[in-house]
Amino acid sequence: MPTVTIEPSGEVIYLEPDETVLSGLYKAGYAYTIGCRRGGCAICKVDCRAGEFHYNRPIADTVINETERADGTCLSCRAVPDGDITIEMRGENVRLVNPFLRQINEKARLRAEAKQAADAERLTSTTTKE
Amino acid sequence: MAVMRMGYVHARVTDLAEAKEHYANTLGLYETHSEPGKVFYKGWDEWDHHSVVLEEGGVGVAKFGFKVEYESDIDAIEKKAQDFGLTVERMSAGDNLEVSDGIRFTSPSEHVFEVYHSQKVIGTEVGTHNPDAFPRHLVGVGVPALDHALILAENVRKMEDMFKAVFDFFPTERVQTDLNDDDAHFIASWMTCNNQIHQIAVLEGEQSKLHHFAFKLDNWDQVGRAADLFSMDDVPIDIGPTRHGITRGQTIYFFDPAGNRNEVFAGGYPAYRDRPINKWTPDAIAKGIFYHARELNERFTTVYT
Fold first, then answer.
1. Which of B:215-244 have CB within 8 Å of A?
2. A64 near A88, Cβ under 8 Å?
3. In the CATH scheme, what architecture does the domain B3-116 have?
4. Is B258's CB within 8 Å of A62's CB?
5. CATH superfamily of A3-129
6. Can you tell me the ipTM of this complex?
7. pLDDT digit string (tens) for B87-134?
8. Taking phi first (over 0 means left), then psi (-120 to 50 degrees means alpha), and beta for anything else, what does residue A85 get?
9. Phi, psi of A128 (to 5 degrees)
10. Distance, in angstroms, between A74 CA and closest chain B CA?
11. Do B12 and A60 touch (CB under 8 A)?
């Protein structure tokens, strides 16, 4: 389950596999400046500070130019994280507009932490046996 | 008579397969030709070969085509365009599939306009012999025809001058900073050449960009039904259903799968050359654009392709 950490708040969003950054943030109850939601208007760009992502559709050169393809610019409606990534909003911060949805993200966090703990324990017991 | 109507929009899309799903299955346009990387459509109530061309690669608008009544109108418009200071080139029959010869020029707003006098006639889907009211098996929204487009330009007044001088269009509504035209800065202008309330509109903004192109619907019921279908098909709705104060049209703004804004537009009062122009001042622009919300969402001026 890839995560998106939003700087500067440090809020961690849990995404489904193949889910876009925009979809993940909105599903967790957050809003920010978005437009067409289909990769055409370029308004939902954020900066990727750590981690890798790819685009799930071709993106027009007028939307993401050559420089932007290499400088961490992340068109959030079409960007799918390849693993855990950290993003920073441009000129604004995300706004929590649906607290109910944030509870779902909180549950995803608890599940992920429980799984991590279980994995760690399994690893420890395996190591001990050896 | 010179220009009769905006005959076609040629738009760019990033993924043709997804675009086809939207324009054919959600909007219900009829595919009239397809080739690698390109598809041609018409609405059920249109008789010419196509009104929408989609080309894979990029986003936004490649060009607009305006149809004149007579072949001789082409020469007259070419002269007017040259007199206005535009560089005009001739296009041959076949430059555009099933479209006649004509002229092409780039406007001061850096949009490409073509003028032609005929297209291959296919006929409407109900025909002309004792026709029924609509085709029984429409797909999705089933839009009957292309309606109008809104483009962006740095100099709206100059674009209005161009449409008046070259195409003999007239403005029906405007957003302007002062009611006195001489003192005013033009923010937006809605123009036509016949009784349709607008065929082209120009809003102050980035050169060469497309704000939206629109399809015709008959009434509120159809607009509401279209909105339901957009939810079913996960089409992102920008705003609506609502009404425009300007034109009085009933509307939904939504996005195609490449992010180009589309609109379905119903109503609008009849335009006449001698009808005084409706003038909106910037303090009322929100009501002019979105008559019910009376609040201009930030996307209206920032989101375009």
1. 236, 238
2. no
3. Roll (3.10)
4. no
5. Beta-grasp domain (3.10.20.30)
6. 0.91
7. 999 999 999 999 999 999 999 999 999 999 999 999 999 999 999 999
8. beta
9. -60, -45
10. 16
11. yes
